Amino acid sequence: MMDVIKQMKRITTILLVFLAISCHAQKGIAITIDDVPNTKNYIRNNNQNVLFEKLDTLNVPYTIFVNEGLLYKNGSLENNLSLLKQWCADERVTVGNHTFSHGRYSELDIGPFVMDIIKGQIHIGKYMGDSIRYFRFPYNDLGKDSIQHTRVNKALDSLNYNVTPFTIESSDWMFNAVYLHYLDQGDTAKANSVGNQYVSKTIELLHFYESLSSNQHQRSVHQIYLCHDNALNQMYLPIIIQHLKKNDYQIISLQQVLTDPIYNQKDNYHKKWGISWFYRWMSTKEERYHWMTLEPDFSEIETEFEKITKHNKT
Ligand SMILES: [Zn+2]
What we know:
Layout: H1 2-23, E1 27-36, H2 39-43, H3 50-58, E2 62-66, H4 77-89, E3 93-97, H5 110-119, H6 122-128, E4 134-135, H7 146-158, E5 162-163, E6 168-169, H8 172-184, H9 188-217, E7 223-228, H10 231-246, E8 249-251, H11 254-257, H12 277-280, H13 285-293, H14 299-313
Parallel strand pairs: 1-2, 1-7, 1-8, 2-3, 4-5, 6-7
Bound molecules: zinc ion.
């Protein structure tokens, strides 16, 4: 009798593993957008968020991380609040907290940091009640050491927040700075070329993480893309999404990605740098370092960004 029970258990386990693998056979990715609302950018667009309007047209789910401090930046608080209310009510949009003022946790004490989280949920809390669940650290800085990490995790638990991971980010903020520089100079051709470079580098990086995922986890793990509310994404994120769809990716919600138990793995990285969760799940720094050296080369945009930053300072 015991043998039959054992056999049944084994069959059930095999079936569950098979089910988990087949659920993840299709490639999936969630879009997450930080530093919302970029109200300075909205001024150019009649106080609207053209990026979100385009995503709505594409009918894809997306998650936004709000810094409520940004609501006060363009002198149109009423308009910004009405947009925020709209996003909170939209079923396709998941709204998360990204603190009020976007400070680096490793440079702050726990008290002021937690205060900034609470201050960052005043309006979204009003519109969403208890349903705010997701928190993303500014710069993905989870603290300078394991003591800081543990301390903040406890505080976030008591506030009912989940720390939101990401697997891929392709320095869109850097491409955006160079893109805007050329637009300001009236050089549309160069701005467009930067935009196209952003698209191709993002896809190259995604392929890199797919190969890392197959190597480390023997399957395609559903990914979380991190980018920002900016002029570059307004033009080029829809192009990236179209490309992904054509290449058999499903654009899925953050909630759906996080159902994969892989995301419950231990974070073994206790420094302040905002690295991908694929690296945080690795158990040694040597392994992390090995994979980081295999990442696609971003030196072209980095050099341009440095040149422009220096130029703007002088
Ligand atoms: Zn941010």
